[in-house]
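Posted in: Structural Biology > Protein-Ligand Complexes

Title: Requesting predicted complex, tryptophan in pocket

I'd be grateful if someone could produce the 3D structure tokens for the following input. Sequence and ligand are given below.
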Amino acid sequence: MAVARGEFSSKLGFILAASGSAVGLGNIWGFPTQAASNGGGAFLLVYLLLAFCLAFPALMAELVIGRHAKSNAVNALRLISTNRLSYHAGSITGYVGIITASLILCFYALVAGWMLSYFLAPLAELAGLQDISDWLTEFGLYRNILFMLIFMTLTVAIISRGVQEGIEKWSARLMPVLLVLLLLLIVYVLTLDGAMDGVKAYLIPDLSRITDLQLIISALGQAFFSLSLGVGTMLIYGSYISQKENLFHLGRIVTFVDIGIAVMAGLLILPAMYVAQNNGVVIFDAAGKLISEDTLIFTVLPALFDTMGDIGIIISFAFFVLMSIAALTSSISMLEVPVAYVVENHAVDRTRAAQGIGLVIALISTVIAFNFADLFSLTVHATTRFSQPLLGFVLCIFAGWLWHRNKVLAEIKEGYAEVEQSLFWKIWPPYIRYICPLSILAVFVQLAFYNL
Ligand code: TRP
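-- Reply #1 --
Done. Output follows.
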């Protein structure tokens, strides 16, 4: 039985949903942390270059394939394959993408759960419940599992409602709140003593570092994670875009929003670190290295908020609400990947699919929580450093080599009739054929040798 497919109701609907997917913990937590530990301005510069020159073309490939096929990644890659071999390669890529998206959600839901518990903590404190507030901010098995479950329940509830009523409506509600909160926090932090040192560290690049291989690898990984690439998220969102819309234009806006929010988040977190330092919090060790890289926002920021007195409680609340919202509009896009596949290929009802898959993900997430030391960073690295770049590489091969150039052109022409004369059409095809796959491969090989 054919299932009626969802579609975003408008251009804005897609922009909010896709930016909602792109803007997440990766932007507000990952990017500033990486920038802080990789030379501030130098990282920013390399990141901007890679995000525009490599991640954006890859995003376009996913959107074009998705809208053409009007289906999930498995069917889409089968459709554009040209022989038996590429048909099977397409299926496998689609399946690996589904598994990767689900595994990313397993660890993402745990981190997002911390955001929820951290935003409840100041409320408990205000209510005089100090014990509860401490429990909420201390790393503990039951807290981790409980908040992961709450977060997964919210994600499942939104995805069950479908494309327009769920993804689009909630992204449209949450994204403006996120932007306003972020702006308010930046303005406030910039007025504090010490903030300008952070702004300098962030905006003035140390040019000697921009050729640092580790920095380049981190920046590329960050750009791919931030634009939700490789696993079929953007492909499936592309499949919900109407034929009337100009894909290039939409992709460009989403890229700008994503990069813009990451850059803005840097303008919040780096100055906040220096304000914390100014207030007596130790953030760098004797060698000048950041003390708590991964836990930066859970240690440095609360320490900063603590030094601010009552206003700190409000700021802390606003910050972690912001993080929770960013995480939710991203996690729904991860869950949509397996759900769309099961709904379309196995005719399962959407609500059932969302609940069933959500349950499996919550179970795996619980296993990770129980074996946190062994499994957490293993899952993060296996998915984001290994699987995502590899999938991105295969998608470029499909879009650049296997799919016929005229068919690609015909698809992009829908909604953008004059594309053939544009700079985009001169640059993008060779990019997606040579530059993107080769760069990903280069990074991938480096990672395989140095990091596994
Ligand atoms: N881009 C999101 C972030 O920056 C995370 C995300 C959403 C994602 N969907 C994805 C990452 C799919 C990889 C694959 O936090």
